[in-house]
Design brief:
It is a single chain. This protein is α/β, with parallel strands linked by helices. 50% of the residues lie in helices and 12% in strands. It has 12 helices and 9 strands. The strands form 2 sheets. It has a 6-stranded parallel beta sheet with strand order 3-2-1-4-5-6, sandwiched between helices. It starts with a strand and ends in a 17-residue tail after the last helix.
């Protein structure tokens, strides 16, 4: 793969930024990658493991002279970071992000983007329950989707260049309107995370009255809830506060469905339960067929022995 940018700056050095660095290096997509994290400890860890060609002690230092600056911080912090780096942004450069919410990010970041600098929000639909600079790996984006959300007046050549970077990192790329993105992600990510956090919280309350048996005898379903609920709390706090309308809409629909299932269980309506579970099972098969997961035991997360 040929080089797409001379210099890329990653602001925030968690799972996504770390994986971006390794994926960029794997494919030779940038001449230099600079990085910055607010925590001195994180910066020191990044230097120790060779994350980024140059780890800087300020966001401005990392962003200065970069052709692409990617905001990899929680969505609640993006506006402040954009304001900080705005004075050093190179004319013709592109600013992007990896946030799970798009309308709020556009409203928070756009006012700080200087004339002559392109702002193209993005969202890679990839991740694990792990966080921090040591959690990244080059294959994270392989065959996963990255959604570009160009703003009004986005330069087509800048969009095409950013698309080439993500495709070079192994991702499938699509474009989407910001409001539609936030609704879709409320269905596929935000509401499921909130439900997982709630279920684990309920189990934790139960654990106190069952001498820890809820944890000791956890079955696969609950273990998957705990995996989701182990995600970074700062990131998810900001997601729910900045995508509240779409998330509340989906949670309202979820509550209606849950009441219908409660009624079916209470009245012994086995046919409704069977039909419902058959329909939802087909969605799981569709995800596997689309190459977005595996039907290997334990969703491919554990090793099996023969």
């Amino acid at each position: 793969m040929s080089q797409v940018y001379d210099r890329v700056a990653l602001i925030g050095l968690g799972l996504i930024a770390s994986s971006m660095f390794w994926a960029i290096k794997r494919a030779g997509l940038a001449g230099e990658v600079t990085g910055y994290a607010r925590s001195a400890e994180t910066r020191e860890t990044a230097r120790k493991i060779g994350l980024c060609d140059r780890v800087c002690d300020s966001a401005q230092e990392a962003a200065k002279g970069a052709d692409l600056v990617v905001l990899c911080v929680p969505v609640g912090a993006m506006g402040a970071v954009a304001a900080d780096i705005a004075p050093v942004l190179k004319p013709g450069a592109t600013v992007s992000d990896v946030g799970s919410v798009k309308r709020h990010v556009i409203e928070a970041v756009s006012p700080h983007i200087p004339d002559g600098v392109h702002f193209i929000p993005a969202h890679p639909l990839a991740g694990t329950e792990h966080s921090g600079p040591e959690s990244g790996f080059a294959e994270l984006f392989d065959n996963r989707w990255n959604l570009l959300v160009p703003v009004k007046g986005s330069d087509p050549d800048a969009v095409a260049r950013l698309r080439a970077l993500w495709e070079g990192m192994g991702a499938n790329v699509d474009e989407m309107d910001a409001d539609h993105h936030d609704l879709v992600l409320a269905v596929t990510s935000h509401a499921p995370h909130l439900i997982a956090y709630t279920m684990v919280g309920v189990a934790d309350d139960l654990r106190r009255v069952t001498d820890g048996e809820v944890i000791k005898y956890s079955a696969a379903g609950f273990r998957d809830f705990t995996r989701i609920a182990a995600s970074d709390p700062t990131m998810w706090r900001d997601v729910f506060l900045t995508n509240k309308d779409a998330t509340l809409e989906i949670l309202g629909r979820f509550t209606e469905e849950l009441f219908a299932l409660q009624r079916a269980i209470r009245t012994g309506d086995g046919e409704q339960l069977f039909d419902y579970f058959t329909r939802t099972r087909a969605i799981r098969r569709g995800i596997i067929d689309a190459g977005q997961d595996t039907d290997a035991p334990d969703f491919g997360r554990g090793k099996t022995t023969s």
